């Protein structure tokens, strides 16, 4: 098992994926590193990567006109960042800034999509893992909208 | 039932609308002892009376400490008091946090917004008995960094080697390097053995509901989860009925309840 496969195997997002699928995903991944303050991506840039954080923290920001960048979520090691796009090229709608030295795997979403088309079991496993992330994100967004500290 | 006059010894602005008042009996002598989680009825003469949790150290005899958010006529009047001002105090009332159950257990303290004020006395108590506890963790959430209470104290607590403090806000500007996310997302990162954990929770009711769901999901038994309910209290002694909540009077049977005791009432819309 090479270094990238080892990182994937240890990462919570991929805990239910079969070893043969981790091997395939490792072929779509590269290691990336960001210094504190460096941006992983900016709004409107082409979204070609899905990030698997294994060290550090990232502030997910939206640019809100005169109010400057607003942080809406902190993403930590053990979490994932980005969407799994499976059709057209998409663009980032927010920005991600490393709060400290951050290391991640960058999965090429185009390559991952091609591999999932070739192996539907891989696609299903990946989407199953991702649907859980989406469910949590929706719930968190719903709670944030409620402004629970408003009263 | 008659308020005792107290003098304001000090006023500290915590956030834009929240102040901590330090009080001493006008007639001299120490304030009455209290247990963590109890509250006093504070009377702004000529305006009215409100229940406010005691937020000082129960182990330190001396001034009475209350943290108050200015949201209505009475609390605004109390927050306008200056050093030397006079207010009335009745109490202490209510059931306390069951800190006597803590020795030998992991303890998680989860506070939201102004909810840290009634929990701070429990934190003081727990820190004074730190050696008797397992893991001790505090999770504090607020709307923005500007709404965090007791900021310096939080930073001091974080500097301890035997106390893990997690702070999170719902949204922040770019200069905030702390965590942004609702409290429920931080609970999985806390270290505790669910079967041997005492959980103390206080904050807006909706925040408590989501927090309680996560704690139960993590495996903490409901009889080991305690929360402080805050509803409209008037007399403080279980006579007027304003704080009645199903079969309970919040002022007398609470405000601190075990989740196992009130679980069926939490979701009832009629109350």
How would you characterize this protein structure?
- The complex is a heterodimer of chains A (151) and B (271).
- Chain A is of the alpha+beta class.
- Chain A has one domain: Sandwich (Jelly Rolls).
- Helix content of chain A is 34%, strand content 32%.
- In chain A, helix 1 crosses helix 2 (19-26).
- Chain A is globular and about 45 Å long.
- A seven-stranded mixed β-sheet of chain B has the order 11-9-8-7-12-13-16, sandwiched between helices. In chain B, strands 4-3-6-1-2-5 form a six-stranded antiparallel β-sheet. A two-stranded antiparallel ribbon of chain B has the order 14-15.
- Chain B has 271 residues and is an alpha/beta fold.
- Chain B folds into two domains: 4-93, Elongation Factor Tu (Ef-tu), domain 3; 99-228, Nucleotide-binding domain of ferredoxin-NADP reductase (FNR) module (Rossmann fold, 3-Layer(aba) Sandwich).
- The longest helix of chain B has 14 residues, at 205-218.
- The two termini of chain B are 27 Å apart.
- In chain B, 22% of the residues lie in helices and 32% in strands.
- The chains are: A alpha+beta (151), B alpha/beta (271).
- The interface between A and B is medium-sized, with 25 and 27 residues.
Number of domains of chain A: 1
Classify the helix fraction of chain A into a percent range: 25-40%
Q: Tell me the major beta sheet of chain A.
A: 4 strands, antiparallel
Q: What CATH first level of the largest domain in chain B would be assigned?
A: Alpha Beta
Question: Which strand order does the major sheet of chain B show?
Answer: 11-9-8-7-12-13-16
| Largest interface, C-beta closer than 8 angstroms, per-chain residues | A-B, 25 and 27 residues
Determine the CATH superfamily of chain A. Jelly Rolls
- Give the SSE string of chain A: HHEEEEEEEEEEHH
CATH class of chain A: Mainly Beta
- Low-confidence blocks of residues of chain A: none
- Count the beta strands of chain A: 10
The residue ranges of chain B in which pLDDT falls below 50 over 5 or more consecutive positions are none
The CATH architecture name of the largest domain in chain B reads 3-Layer(aba) Sandwich
Question: Helix/strand-derived class of chain A?
Answer: alpha+beta
* Topology pattern of chain B, helix = H, strand = E: EEEEEHEEHEHEEEHEHEEEHEH
Let me know the average pLDDT of chain A: 90
Q: How far apart, in Å, are the first and last alpha carbons of chain B?
A: 27 Å
Largest sheet of chain B: 7 strands, mixed
CATH architecture of chain A: Sandwich
Task: Give me the secondary-structure category of chain B.
Answer: alpha/beta
């Amino acid at each position: 098992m090479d270094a990238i496969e080892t990182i994937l195997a240890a990462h919570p997002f991929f805990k239910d994926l079969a070893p043969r699928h981790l091997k395939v995903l490792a072929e779509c991944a590269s290691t990336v590193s960001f210094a504190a303050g460096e941006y992983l991506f900016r709004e409107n840039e082409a979204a070609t990567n899905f990030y698997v954080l294994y060290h550090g923290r990232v502030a997910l920001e939206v640019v809100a006109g005169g109010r400057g960048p607003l942080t809406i979520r902190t993403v930590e090691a053990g979490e994932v960042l980005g969407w799994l796009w499976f059709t057209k090229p998409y663009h980032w709608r927010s920005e991600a800034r490393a709060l400290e030295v951050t290391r991640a795997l960058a999965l090429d979403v185009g390559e991952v999509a091609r591999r999932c088309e070739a192996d539907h079991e891989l696609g299903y496993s990946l989407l199953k893992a991702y649907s859980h992330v989406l469910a949590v994100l929706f719930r968190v967004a719903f709670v944030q909208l409620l402004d629970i500290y408003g009263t | 039932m008659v308020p005792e006059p107290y003098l304001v010894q000090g006023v500290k602005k915590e956030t834009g609308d929240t102040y901590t008042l330090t009080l001493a009996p006008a007639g001299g002598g120490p304030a009455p002892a209290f247990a963590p989680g109890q509250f006093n009825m504070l009377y702004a003469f000529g305006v009215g009376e409100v229940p406010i949790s005691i937020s000082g150290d129960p182990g330190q005899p001396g001034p009475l400490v209350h943290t108050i958010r200015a949201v209505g006529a009475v609390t605004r009047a109390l927050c306008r008091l200056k050093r030397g001002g006079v207010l009335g105090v009745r109490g202490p009332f209510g059931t306390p946090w069951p800190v006597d159950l803590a020795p030998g257990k992991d303890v998680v303290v989860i506070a939201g917004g102004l909810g840290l004020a009634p929990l701070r006395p429990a934190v003081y108590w727990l820190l004074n008995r730190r050696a008797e506890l397992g893991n001790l963790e505090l999770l504090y959430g607020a709307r923005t960094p500007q709404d965090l209470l007791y900021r310096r104290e939080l930073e001091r607590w974080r500097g301890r080697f035997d106390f893990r403090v997690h702070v999170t806000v719902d949204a922040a500007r770019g200069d905030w390097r702390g965590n942004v996310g609702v409290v429920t997302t931080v609970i999985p990162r806390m270290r505790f053995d669910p079967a041997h954990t005492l959980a103390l929770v206080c904050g807006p009711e909706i925040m408590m509901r989501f927090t309680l769901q996560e704690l139960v999901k993590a495996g903490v038994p409901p009889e080991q989860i305690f929360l402080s309910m805050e509803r409209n209290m008037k007399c403080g002694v279980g006579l007027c009925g304003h704080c009645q909540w199903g079969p309970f009077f919040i002022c007398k049977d609470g405000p601190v309840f075990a989740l196992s005791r009130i679980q069926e009432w939490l979701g009832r819309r009629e109350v």
